[in-house]
Design brief:
Layout lengths: L2 H30 L1 H39 L3 E6 L11 E2 H10 L3 E5 L2 E2 L4 E5 L2 E10 L11 E4 L4 H5 L4 E5 H8 L8 E6 L2 E11 L5 H7 L5 E6 L1 H7 L5 E2 L1 E6 L5 H15 L8 E5 H44 L1 H9 L4 H40 L11 H27 L3 H6 L2
Parallel strand pairs: 6-11, 8-10
Antiparallel strand pairs: 1-13, 1-14, 2-12, 3-13, 4-6, 5-6, 5-9, 7-10, 8-11, 9-10
Helix pairs in contact: 1-11, 2-9, 2-11, 2-12, 9-11, 9-12, 11-12
Length: about 425
């Protein structure tokens, strides 16, 4: 091996040995002042853990809520007439409009008028009387809820058109009324507005206790019932052949925007109101994006607060290191008298600051991840299903790098002060 190369390797080995020695001394000093070192780390821990927790939990909430809303309402468009008072009855939609949409608009899997009265009814069984949230619509009401059927079937088009006294109920409602989900073919006596009618159960839908479901239905009733719309006219005298609004269900949320435009255009042409903005298409998928944007703004704001906490922690590191320089003045003088170079002293104190911030950063990352998982777990248990902390490796690396920079930045001044001490003045220090 050539001599110059041997010398380079030798210098590298010596440099590594010095760095290892600096790290050992730094760790020894940190262990020797555990209380002070912990207080120094505390600001870093709070800042880093806050950043990791907020970003991870925030991303989890954003993904979970967006997923829930997209599954529940992201795949449909609400069409409604918004007509001035003197022309309020000029636009009333009919089933012919729904048939036209089926025929002319691609990627439409269903359309229905929907009537929902919240927890307005009651149902009786041998197990007691329970509150009922009835929803009325045609056979396409099936698509209003993404929860699958676990028993039986959904009512068909013939039943929906003939005022058939059939219903689909939720899993929890079946258990409350009958003690089991094996209830297809059984009858439920449901009372609403002073009228009691028996409905035959044709299907049982899996429970959907998501926050998004509660937001859209606005009910916490014991039993959820889905019933053909025509029964409203047959039992309660409601005229259901015409309606001022209805819902169009898309094959997928990706088609919602295009469906919204096409349906509005067709209806405006049909009712000769093009350019008058009398027919509105309310795209629920766009609301998912709005919620996501709001969550992003909240996350950014809290991250700024966490950043301030990190800066405060960095100032704490600087103050503690200044105290350490004062306490170790004589030690610095002895080392300089023995030949220690200014760069060695500077690097030693800088290493201590960096190690303190790195340890604080690591602890902060662990606490942040655990905290985010804990919060998302609690939220999931409270009905916000699908909430899971999203740990972004980029954020973790950024937090680690930032904590190191904090240590270097706020450690430079104390380190320079220690390095510039005169050996004679340092040895005189008491």
């Amino acid at each position: 091996m050539p001599r110059p190369q041997c010398r380079r390797i030798q210098r590298m080995v010596q440099t590594m040995a010095r760095i290892i020695e600096y790290i050992k001394i730094a760790l020894m000093n940190i262990r020797g002042n555990k209380g002070r070192s912990f207080l120094t780390m505390l600001g870093i821990i709070i800042g880093i853990s806050s950043v990791i927790l907020i970003v991870s939990a925030g991303n989890g909430f954003k993904v979970g809520i967006s997923g829930q809303l997209d599954e529940l309402v992201g795949g449909y468009v609400q069409i409604y007439a918004d007509v001035p008072g003197d022309e309020a009855d000029s636009i009333m939609f009919t089933n012919d409009d729904l048939d036209m949409i089926y025929e002319k608009v691609p990627h439409v899997k269903g359309a229905t008028d929907v009537w929902s009265f919240g927890a307005q009814g009651s149902a009786q069984s041998t197990k007691g009387t329970f509150s009922v949230a009835p929803m009325f619509g045609n056979e396409s009401l099936f698509y209003y809820d993404n929860a699958p059927l676990i028993r039986g079937r959904y009512y068909n088009k013939s039943e929906a058109q003939s005022s058939a006294k059939v219903c689909v109920i939720n899993e929890r409602g079946a258990k409350k009324l009958f003690g089991s989900t094996d209830v297809v073919g059984l009858e439920i006596s449901m009372s609403m507005w002073g009228i009691t009618e028996d409905y035959t159960v044709v299907g049982v839908r899996k429970d959907n206790d998501s926050i998004a479901k509660q937001m859209t239905t606005g009910t916490g009733a014991d039993v959820s019932m889905e019933i053909p719309l025509t029964t409203l006219e047959d039992l309660y005298g409601y005229y259901t052949d015409e309606f001022s609004s209805f819902i169009v269900f898309a094959d997928s949320s990706e088609y919602v925007t295009e469906i919204s435009k096409q349906v509005k255009s067709l209806l405006e042409a049909r009712y000769n109101v093009r350019g008058r903005d009398y027919i509105q298409a309310y795209d629920m998928a766009s609301q998912v994006g709005m919620i996501s944007d709001i969550l992003n703004y909240v996350t950014i704001f809290i991250m700024l607060v966490a950043g301030i906490a990190l800066i405060v922690g960095g100032i704490g590191v600087m103050n503690i290191m200044l105290v350490s320089v004062t306490e170790r003045t004589k030690e610095i003088g002895i080392r300089k008298a023995l030949g220690a170079k200014t760069g060695s002293i500077l690097f030693q104190f800088l290493m201590e600051a960096v190690i303190i911030t790195l340890i604080g950063g690591f602890v902060g990352i662990v606490l942040g991840v655990l905290g985010a998982k804990g919060i998302c777990s609690i939220a999931s248990g409270m009905g916000m299903s699908g909430m899971q902390a999203v740990i972004d490796p980029k954020v973790v690396l950024a937090a680690t790098g930032f904590s190191s920079l904090i240590g270097i930045f706020f450690g430079i001044y104390p380190a320079r002060k220690a390095a510039k001490l005169s050996p004679i003045e340092a040895l005189r220090h008491e």
